[in-house]
Amino acid sequence: MNLLRQTVKLIPTFLLALALSVTVWISAVTSTDPTAERQYPRQVEIEFIGQDPSVILTAGGSTTVSMRLSAPTSIWDRLTNERSLVRAVVDLSGLEPGEYELPVQVQINTSPVRIISYSPAKINLTMERLQSLQMPVRLVRRGDPAIGYKTGDPTLDTTEALVSGPASLVQQVAGLQVVLDVTKANDTISRSLDIQAVDANGLVLNGLTLEPSKVTIIQPVIQMGGYRNVVVKVVTTGLVDDGYRLTTISVSPAAVTVFANDPSLVDSLPGYVETSPVDLTGARDDIDTRLNLNLPAGISVVGDQTVNVVVGIAAIEGSIALNDMTIEVINLAPGLAAELSPETLNLILSGPLPLLDNLVAGDIRVVIDLGGVTAGTYQLVPRIDLAISELRVQSVLPSSIEVIVEEVGTPTPSPTPTRTPRPTPTR
């Protein structure tokens, strides 16, 4: 009995010790891993679960949730690095078409974490019945092919598509179409095009799913009888000036469409038509001109009756070696003298041959500029002055010149000898 009383008396002491130890443990844990209240650093995308496959979500409010959480520092590290730990969910289970205000459920898949707040807590949704409809696809051609061509019967790899989406939107679909631009086409077109759902006014409807979403179209483009495409051949006469050469001859358009009431006339053409001649006699510069075409009787050009011809002409390039060119010293200060080593150099110039052939001594200077230079020994690069800008310096040997600059002393005048007068002889 006494033992029982003593045990009962010790219970308060035991409980106090337990409370103190728990408090100490909590204090130790808190000091090493303190709890922090922060804004979660990311917007969380709202997930919709339990949706009936026959119902489609057509309108809603915010699609993300921002939240403020409280958690130990170690947990915050996980929350920041592992996105899957935080979810925002809206349950659509059992919902029929209609308008709803539904709660957003925040799920934190770790602990200990306390949700302080989040926004939005509810979102407004509109749900509609999903509808699908099989419809034919038609081709809409825009523009006209090139003159002398016509379109044939097109081929589509599929003629129907399944339209799916909200019933209210599917009911606005008046047809499915693909649009093909044939403007100035002169050959068969093969292209993959997007299928478009349009309403009664021809306006494209968005927000629908089309299966398939594309159609491959082969659109024949056929040349009509009496028309033919032929290339343009430029005819030239004469020769460019000596020392010049042709660099290019171009014509625009490179091909033209010709027409004849008698198809046999165009069929008899060799595949090209010639221009009236371009005279190159003595030409030294590019020629840019418009020319007529020489066409047989009964044949005419469809469209512009002339073509633009550009003839590129350039001087033939060459080079010339100039040896023992004297070096000229300029801007040497008074009282100084300069000695050059060597006193001449060799040059190689390049450029158009006609200019090189007519080069004269006054067209080139080799100079050493000693402006601001004082007495001393220098290695200086000579300057080559060319009066003809089209010429280029290819080589200078040597590339630098040794220049010794010295002061020139003023010569001391020689003393004038004193003449002793002769004594006058006495008689």
Structure description:
Mean pLDDT is 87; it is low at 411-427. By secondary structure, the protein is mainly beta. The protein has 5 domains: 1-31; 35-120, RNA Polymerase Alpha Subunit, Chain A, domain 2 (Beta Complex); 130-223, RNA Polymerase Alpha Subunit, Chain A, domain 2 (Beta Complex); 227-315, Beta Complex (RNA Polymerase Alpha Subunit, Chain A, domain 2); 318-407, RNA Polymerase Alpha Subunit, Chain A, domain 2, CATH 2.170.120.30. The strands form 9 sheets. Strands 3, 6, 9, 12, 13, 15 and 16 form a 7-stranded mixed sheet that branches. Strands 21-27-25-23-19-22-26 form a 7-stranded mixed sheet. The chain is built from 5 helices and 36 strands. The N and C termini lie far apart (186 Å). The radius of gyration is 49 Å and the shape is flat.
